Amino acid sequence: MLPVRSVLLPGAVLATVVLTMAPASSHPAPAPRPAPRIDTARVEVQLLDRVNVVRRQAGCRRLRPKAGLHGAAAAHSAAMGATGTLSHQLPGEPVLRDRVAAAGFRNAARMGEVIARGPTSARSALDRWLDSPPHRAVLLDCRLRLVGLGVESVGEQLWWTVDLVRC
């Protein structure tokens, strides 16, 4: 039986309070679970596969991943996550053309970039970009053939960068 206590509150209002007690336990409360770790490499592969399906439907050739572009895209996603800023150019960071050149693509004739913060899956990121005419145009530009994808997990937030190039 739970203990019951009556209390006289100001204004002569009588309240009845039921006191509850937690069961005695020698075990500490479980620690909160950390957010699940996202396998960003797997997400990048899923994104590339999905982008290539959409490109094929639009009559474009498949994008070919390049390690140097991947490094540039990953570094940009990490920088956005570290600063909490979604931008194609962060303060003190080179513009896309210079980032692409530093990645080994000095003769890039054409380039494009799409970025995002927040989507938790390759499908949701791609859907967001395809719903935006400027982003859709970049992803479906058949002249762009090389790609680097960078997905960075910062806290519970995902930061996305896709750099596309034609040399």
Give a description of the structure:
The protein is 35% helix and 25% strand. The protein has five helices and six strands. It has helices spanning 40-57, 67-83, 96-102, 122-130, 133-139; strands at 4-9, 13-18, 64-65, 110-117, 146-154, 157-166. The chain has a four-stranded mixed sheet, sandwiched between helices. The longest helix has 18 residues, at 40-57.
The gist of it:
With 167 residues, this protein is α+β, with helices and mostly antiparallel strands. The chain is built from five helices and six strands; from the N terminus they run ββαβααβααββ. A hairpin with a 3-residue loop joins strand 1 (4-9) and strand 2 (13-18).
What attributes characterize this protein structure?
SCP domain-containing protein, alpha+beta, 5 helices, signal, four-stranded mixed sheet, disordered N terminus, 167 residues, 35% helix, single chain, CAP_sf
> How big a fraction of the residues is strand?
15-25%
Structural class by helix and strand composition: alpha+beta
The overall pLDDT average reads: 85
Radius of gyration, in angstroms, nearest whole number: 26 Å
Termini separation:
80 Å
Main β-sheet: number of strands, strand sense, barrel status? Answer: 4 strands, mixed
Estimated helix fraction: 25-40%
The succession of helices and strands, N to C, reads EEHEHHEHHEE
Q: How many separate helices?
A: 5
Shape: globular
Number of strands: 6
Low-confidence stretches: 1-25
- Side by side, the strands of the main sheet go 3-5-6-4
